[in-house]
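re: that chain from earlier
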Amino acid sequence: MANRRQDATVIVGGGHAAGSLLTTLLQKKYQQEVVLVGEEPHPPYQRPPLSKNYLAGDIDEESLYLKPRSVYDDAGYQLRLGERAEHIDRDNKTITLSDQSTLKYGQLVLATGSRVRHLNAQGADLKGLHYLHDMADSDALREQFVPGKSLVIVGGGYIGLEVAAIAVKAGLKVTVLEAVERLMQRVTGPEISAFFYAKHRGAGVDVRLDTAVTGFEAGNHGYVAGVTLADGTTVPADLVLVSVGIAPETALAEAAGLPCDDGILVDEYTRTNDPDILAIGDCTRHRNLFFEQTQRMESVANAVDQARTAAATLMGEDRPYDAAPWFWSNQYDVRLQMVGLSHAHDERVVRGKPEDEAFAVFYLRQGHLIAVDAVNLPMALMVGKKLVYQHREVKAQALRDPDIELKSLI
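^ sequence. v structure.
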């Protein structure tokens, strides 16, 4: 089965990047035929709620969809759902799908996303061991949320902590095991880590830092019964969530001979080294003019911004990618919002008091603001976005002083 027209634009993927690209092409009244190939049976949907309000049961499946299916149908966009792209033939510009049909493309956009990292430890194949990446994973986890059950979460990053907050509220006994010395260490500074450590401990979560997992203990009928630690002890568990990061999904691109290095390599216009193939989202290591080096970014904001750049490229417009990255996390009644990348800072400034649950940490490098982490302080994020994007030089005292309005610094 081939396409009606040889110049169809084919999008591979069903996450935020693919959905944002479809939406932007709709807004721009893109004239080419568009076909989306997605492995899951759902139209493109948001993934962040999978560890937040969707897991809690506060919103339903259709609330996750970026657009109702009917919007794509009305626009004439073809969604090939429940099918996997198996092979790209760049010479003939075709893609072979899992049902052995082929699609002819004029332009191809890879939005293949990421896959969860698995733990290769003894007992890792036991029942009751969960990973959280898609809607089915969230559904399976929620089904096990029975008050009184013991949930052990391996990993103290965003997703693990968001699930911990939902689970303890649902009446589960929750333990979080983090291998390094503080929570969310890869993405934030010690003040934010300490705040969330205290928040989770105060809610009744048993948080253990510097705790390495060596395996999983079997119980009845092949189900997990405990998590074994490096010190030889075992933490009892009725169910386990392993949340130790993700890896870019590059297999399709690599097999097609596209350059990859911890992500599909693309330029500031989202182009690979093949002029007819673009790539966007978690699967890419990309050129963002905001940074000196190429980056791989795991965030919704990156997926949306890259999708806009890709849409412009497909339309023949000149719009390079140069956005400041931003992120967020909801845990309990706390909203953490972050902009920029803080790891290269040489000075930190705290505005407000963590005990008030409304404060911000500003990260400076050689006097210039490079990142902001804001807890229940949206104004700090709003001002921070502009100052970080402008690489603005800011006095630490002005950031710290509550009598100086943040807006006055723009």
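The longest helix spans residues 300-314.
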